[in-house]
Amino acid sequence: MKSAVETLNPTRVRLTVEVPFEELKASLDAAYKKINQQVTVKGFRQGKIPARVIDQRFGRGAVLEEAVNDALPKFYTEAINEAELNPLGQPEVDIKELKDGELLAFTAEVDIRPTLEIPDYSGIEVTVDSVEVTDEDVEKSLEQLRDRFATTAPVERAAAEGDIVTVDLEAKVDGEVLEDGVAEGVDYTIGSGQLLDGIDEAVTGLEAGGTATFTSELKGGSAEGKEAEVKVVVTTVKSRELPELDDDFAQLASEFDTLEELRADSRKRLERMKKFDQATQAQEKVLDELIKLVEVPMPEKLLEDEVNTRKHNLEHHQLGQMGLDLAKYLEIQGKSAEEFDAELKEQAEKGIKTQFILDEIVNKEKVSVGQDELTEHLMRRAQSSGMSPDQFAQAVVEGGQVPMLVGEVARGKALATVVEAATVKDASGEVISLDDEDEETVEAATEAVEAAEGTTEA
């Protein structure tokens, strides 16, 4: 086999391949065998029909077509490997010549990973938020914990903000009660804004047994978006009672004996969270600066596919789960279709550039991924997917996605390497040290990479 490579642009090549006919022998034999199993000829047992009879009855052309279809992937792969190319996606193959007994010639156009020059990135400098935990932050955290241990009790008084009311609802449009417009025994916290517009004002001041009517735009159901007259009947009013913020509460809500110990632990936990957020912010900002430094030719077909994939996932998965379509989503976001498409393309370009650049650094810096690192990443991905680690691992293996996970961790480590070489300062001008061997730093970097890449996997 002979092959030659023609560079069409920095991200696309054309392979010209010539194959001597004798190299098609294995595929020709396989073609005769396959056709033998599919056809019957009177006088011959199935599978025992001679090649000359198949040629006479079904045509030599059908055999050649079957053989070429079988052989093309192998010869294409050999040509790719010989030229040391990194293809992206499927090739466009064109058979130029097929002479029986002599020659097979074909061309294959395919996008390839561009060759990148990674400049010195040690001069990158970014500024991130300072890590500062105030007394107000700690108290807010304790109040949130206290809220989780709140109890409710029925009260014989008018409902007020913060109370939980149990209500029956009936919605009418144009004077007719909707089939799906009746609900009974609905619990609602006044002031939460989680039900219908106008309900807070309607139920505030009502005691158990009280009734009110209000007008509201329906947020779902058969009359979504229409104005409805809603009748609400309050059946019970409950007040929320918060536990006292004292040592007894600390023992109830934590492993600590005193409120001061719980308060100190809350401060430490908030500091860890803010440090992780600071590290993630550093990764994102350094990545943005790194992308500016590297010139990345963009494979147009890959970009088009990535934009379509992101749009499909948004429309058919994310928005579907929220009960929205694209038009409604754009209305909520206040964007035109043109603005949305431009934003989607920009995000897709950033995802592709991120992967190309960091993969180049992985190779340049000889970044490796250990089993422990892969396991830790798998556990985190499983948690975010809502699956158990065993279920997620099985899905990854069955889907052949292990190399994808390895790539995610490797790119995270590559970004952590760049961040360590860069200068990161907080708002006060103090230099922040982010060790690329630190587990939390690598995890923050991996999350930053995933956020930038979106669905990209080239």
Automatic annotation (TrEMBL):
The keyword Magnesium does not apply. One of its GO terms (molecular function) is peptidyl-prolyl cis-trans isomerase activity. Residues 162-209 form the PPIase FKBP-type domain. InterPro entries: PPIase_dom_sf (IPR046357), PPIase_FKBP_dom (IPR001179), Trig_fac (IPR005215), Trigger_fac_C (IPR008880), Trigger_fac_C_sf (IPR037041), Trigger_fac_ribosome-bd_bac (IPR008881), Trigger_fac_ribosome-bd_sf (IPR036611), Trigger_fact/SurA_dom_sf (IPR027304). Its main location: cytoplasm. PROSITE patterns: FKBP_PPIASE. It is found in: Cytoplasm. Keywords: Cell cycle, Cell division, Chaperone, Cytoplasm, Isomerase, Rotamase. Signal peptide: none annotated. Its EC number is 5.2.1.8. It catalyses: [protein]-peptidylproline (omega=180) = [protein]-peptidylproline (omega=0). It is an enzyme of class 5 (isomerase). Coiled coil: none annotated. It holds the Pfam family Trigger_N. Involved in protein export. Acts as a chaperone by maintaining the newly synthesized protein in an open conformation. Functions as a peptidyl-prolyl cis-trans isomerase. Consists of 3 domains; the N-terminus binds the ribosome, the middle domain has PPIase activity, while the C-terminus has intrinsic chaperone activity on its own. Belongs to the FKBP-type PPIase family. Tig subfamily. HAMAP family: Trigger_factor_Tig. This is Trigger factor. It comes from Streptomyces roseoverticillatus. The lineage of its organism: Bacteria, Bacillati, Actinomycetota, Actinomycetes, Kitasatosporales.
